[in-house]
Amino acid sequence: MKNGVMDCYSTDPCQDPECREKEICVVMNNKAVCVAQSKATWWLFGDPHYSTFDGQPFSFMGTCSYILVNKTGKDPALLQFSIQTKNELRVNSKGSFLKSANIDLSGHRITILTGQRGTVEID
């Protein structure tokens, strides 16, 4: 029965989804949830070189701490996360280098330090 009418109805919660553009419907806990259709990659390396989520490369020689990624908006379906970096001036140089990166995700902090290849600190 649906809206007072007895008939055969689909039991698929995603049968009539109302997702936004570039989202698809998936079933979680028997409920329809809209999620992004694609994934995006962002990266940085060296003294510091970056590539944005839309694939645009750039270099930035600042010597402070920077917020590179931060979730904004009120959509509760999106996880709260942020990525911050700290750049420092190279000794005997006018350029900077990436000293560390912090990733805050789901109540945890993951820290990546320069010079400790393959090692991360958690919390």
3D structure, described in words:
The protein is mostly beta strands. The chain has two domains: 1-38, no CATH class; 40-122, no CATH class. It has no helices and ten strands. The protein has strands at residues 23-28, 31-36, 43-45, 49-51, 57-59, 65-70, 81-89, 96-105, 108-113, 120-122. It has a five-stranded antiparallel sheet with strand order 6-7-8-9-10, with no helix packed on it. Strands 3-4-5 form a three-stranded antiparallel sheet, with no helix packed on it. The chain has a two-stranded antiparallel sheet with strand order 1-2. The radius of gyration is 22 Å and the shape is elongated. 2% of the residues are buried. The model has no long low-confidence stretch (mean pLDDT 83).
Short description:
0% of the residues lie in helices and 45% in strands. The chain is mainly β and 123 residues long.
Helix percent reads: under 10%
Give the helix tally.
Answer: 0
- Main beta-sheet annotation: 5 strands, antiparallel
- Structural domain tally: 2
- Percent of residues in β-strands: 35-45%
Q: Average the pLDDT over all residues and give the rounded result.
A: 83
* Gyration radius, in Å: 22 Å
- In which order are the strands of the major sheet placed? 6-7-8-9-10
Distance between the termini: 50 Å
Structural class, by secondary structure, is mainly beta
List how many beta strands DSSP finds. Answer: 10
SSE sequence, one letter per element: EEEEEEEEEE
Specify the overall morphology.
elongated
> Could you name the ranges where pLDDT drops below 50 across 5 or more consecutive residues?
none
